[in-house]
Amino acid sequence: MRDAITDVRGIRVGQWTHRRWATGCTVVSCPDGAVGGVDVRGAAPGTRETDLLRPGNLVEEVHAVVLSGGSAFGLDAAGGVVRHLEQQGIGLSFAERTIPIVPAAILYDLGLGSGTRRPGAAEGERAARRATAGRVAQGSVGAGTGATVASLLGRDRALKGGLGTASERLESGA
């Protein structure tokens, strides 16, 4: 037990990090499917397929979730994850097709690195291929590479953020 998200059976995490660009992406993969939920907040949220996670929709499970730097451009990383999962035969079976369900969200990190280099489909696919149930790197890695907090008052007053993971086993065994 590491108290990490990968302690949950069927969950894998893969990351792509580029330190010089100060950006990256993280893929939480659940090839057997998992029930997802979302609470979108912020003054300028950037998401993909998060509406699917609302109760009452036809789709009841996801096959991966992508967190990416690169602001709106980083949403392209999810396309690479979808492609990778499709090649593996992972996804929702519908009308004789396999459709991977991959919600994504981004964070703004364009002010730290080059700003012109950000995660795209190739980087998302690399992160998906690296997904493992093993130990999860935390901090300035993957989507957390260029993450900052408290930047509303200006970049010079921002604090370094990062990526974390957690899990907890309940008395019921869940």
A few lines on this structure:
The protein has 174 residues and is an alpha+beta fold.
In CATH, the topology is named L-amino peptidase D-ALA esterase/amidase
CA gyration radius, whole angstroms:
16 Å
Number of helices: 2
Strand content: 15-25%
SSE order, one letter for each helix or strand: EEEEHEEEHEE
Write a structural description.
This protein has 174 residues and is α+β, with helices and mostly antiparallel strands. It has one domain: L-amino peptidase D-ALA esterase/amidase, CATH 3.60.70. It contains two helices and nine strands. The protein has a five-stranded mixed β-sheet. A two-stranded antiparallel ribbon has the order 5-6.
List keywords for this structure.
globular; five-stranded mixed beta sheet; 2 helices; alpha+beta; two-stranded antiparallel sheet; 9 strands
